[in-house]
Amino acid sequence: MKKIATLPTSACVSCGCCETVCPKNAVAVYNGIYAKVTTSLCIGCGLCVKACPAQIISLREADSVG
């Protein structure tokens, strides 16, 4: 099963680390306030998980993300 990155936007510190490391540009920081994952672009590589200083990004099964 494919995994994709998920994150709670309310806990995002808007540092942009996840956006910088994503090879598919699936993560974007909006208005310097929060990051959002475009699930259709995410390949589940986990680079954003490792890069997040707040440690709020996780990988989940694609069918369990809603």
Descriptive overview:
By secondary structure, the chain is an alpha+beta fold. The chain has a single domain, classed as 2-Layer Sandwich (Alpha-Beta Plaits), CATH 3.30.70.20. 15% of the residues lie in helices and 24% in strands. A hairpin with a 3-residue loop joins strand 2 and strand 3. The protein is globular, with a radius of gyration of 11 Å. The model has no long low-confidence stretch (mean pLDDT 92).
Physical arrangement of strands within the biggest beta sheet: 1-4
CATH topology description: Alpha-Beta Plaits
Helical amount: 10-25%
Give the averaged pLDDT, no decimals: 92
Number of strands: 4
Largest sheet features: 2 strands, antiparallel
- Give the number of helices: 2
Structural class per helix/strand content? Answer: alpha+beta
User: Uncertain regions: pLDDT < 50 for 5+ in a row?
Assistant: none
Q: What shape does the CA trace take? A: globular
Number of individual domains: 1
The level-1 CATH class: Alpha Beta
Beta-strand percent range: 15-25%
Order of helices and strands: EHEEHE
Straight-line distance between termini: 16 Å
Radius of gyration: 11 Å
- The CATH architecture can be given as 2-Layer Sandwich
Chain-wise SSE layout:
Elements: E1 3-6, H1 17-21, E2 27-30, E3 34-37, H2 47-51, E4 58-61
Antiparallel strand pairs: 1-4, 2-3
Descriptive terms for the model:
66 residues, alpha+beta, Alpha-Beta Plaits, two-stranded antiparallel ribbon, 4 strands, 15% helix
